[in-house]
Amino acid sequence: MSKQLEETNCVDKEDTLKKNKSSKSRRETAVQGTNDCSIVSKCSMSQQGYYEDPYLQAFVVRVTRRAPLIHRGYYVRAKACEYTVERFLSTNPGPKQIISLGAGFDSSYFRLKAKNLLKETVLFEIDFPELVKRKHALIKQRTDMLEMIGPINIHHPAMSPHIELSGSHYKLLGVDLSQTNTVEAVLRLCGADLDTPTLLMSECVLTYMTRRCSSALVKWASETFTNVAFVLYEQINPNDTFGLFMQNHYITIGSPLKCINHFPTLISQVERFIKLGWEKVRALDLNQFYSSVLESSERGSC
C-alpha cells in the first residue's frame, strides 16, 4: 500500500508539472500574440505616411488599417524610441552595442542600417525562441534584408541552441528574459562586450513579466554592464478610465499587465530603477515627450 501511495504521488507531481508547463506555454504564446498585434499597428502607421519604415512590411502577412488615434499613438512612440537610439549612437564614438530585450518583430536594425547609422555598432535582439525562429524565416524571404545582415556566422547547435541568426553586426537570439544567466552567457558567446557602451531597449516587455523576474532583469543589467543606459517604454496610470479599459483588454486576450499596478506612475518607475542599482534615472510620459522634445514640424505629423 505504501508503494502504491508513492507511485500515486509521483504521478500527481508529474501531472502538476505538465500542467504548469502547459500553462506557461499558453502565457508565452499570448504574450507573443501582442507582438503580432503591435507590428500590424506599426505597419499601418507607416503605410499611412506617419513614419517611414519600409522594413515593417516584411513582418506583416496581411496589413490591416488601424484608426487614426492608433496611428498617432504609435507615431509618437516610434519617435520616442528613435530619439533615444539615435542620440545614443551620435554621442558615443567608437564601438558600441544595442541590446533589444523582447525585440519581437522590431525592424530597427534594418531601418538604422539603411540610414548608415550603425557604424561600429552591434545590435542584439532577444526574444522567445519560437518568436525569433518566425522572425528569421520572414527575414530569409527578403534578399535586401539578408544583404544588410551580411555573412552569417555558423554556431554549432550544441554550443548554443539559442543563437538563431548571427551576422557581424546583427544577432537574433532566442532566450527567455527571466533566465538572466542564460541571457548573459548567450550574449557573451555572440561577442557582447560588457565594457563597451551599451544601450538596453525594452519596449512594452517588462510589464508582461512578473514583478520579481522583471526587477531581476533590471538589477542584472545594472550590475553586469559597466557603461550602460536602459531605455524603458511601458504603460502607466492603470486606474484612470483608459487604464482600466487597457488592463481589461490585456486580461481578455490572456496576457495581463503584471507590473503596471506595482509601478503605476513615472515616480514609481524612477524609484524602482534607483532601488535596483541605477544611479541617474529620468522619466517622461509621451505627452511630455510630444510637447517638449519633438520639433514642431514633427508634431504636425500627427
β-sheet strand percentage: 5-15%
Number of DSSP helical runs:
11
Number of domains: 1
Second rung of CATH, namely the architecture: 3-Layer(aba) Sandwich
**H/E element string?**
HHEHEHHEEHEHEHHHH
Structural class designation:
alpha/beta
**CATH topology description:** Rossmann fold
The main sheet orders its strands as 3-4-2-1-5-6
Low-pLDDT stretches are 1-19
> Largest beta sheet, briefly?
6 strands, mixed
* Strand tally: 6
Helix content: 40-55%
CATH class: Alpha Beta
Q: What would you call the shape?
A: globular
EC number: 2.1.1.233
InterPro entries: LCMT1, Ppm1/Ppm2/Tcmp, SAM-dependent_MTases_sf
Catalytic activity: [phosphatase 2A protein]-C-terminal L-leucine + S-adenosyl-L-methionine = [phosphatase 2A protein]-C-terminal L-leucine methyl ester + S-adenosyl-L-homocysteine
Function: Methylates the carboxyl group of the C-terminal leucine residue of protein phosphatase 2A catalytic subunits to form alpha-leucine ester residues.
Please, could you describe this protein's structure?
The chain is α/β, with parallel strands linked by helices. It has one domain (about 75-300): Vaccinia Virus protein VP39 (Rossmann fold, 3-Layer(aba) Sandwich). Helices cover about 50% and strands about 10% of the residues. It is built from eleven helices and six strands. The protein has helices at about 1-45, 70-90, 110-115, 130-140, 145-150, 180-190, 210-225, 240-250, 265-275, 285-290, 295-300, and strands spanning about 95-100, 120-125, 165, 170-175, 200-205, 230-235. A six-stranded mixed β-sheet has the order 3-4-2-1-5-6, sandwiched between helices. A hairpin with a 3-residue loop joins β3 and β4 (about 170-175). α1 (about 1-45) crosses α2 (about 70-90). The longest helix is centred in the first third of the chain and has 46 residues, at about 1-45. The protein is globular and about 50 Å long. The termini are far apart.
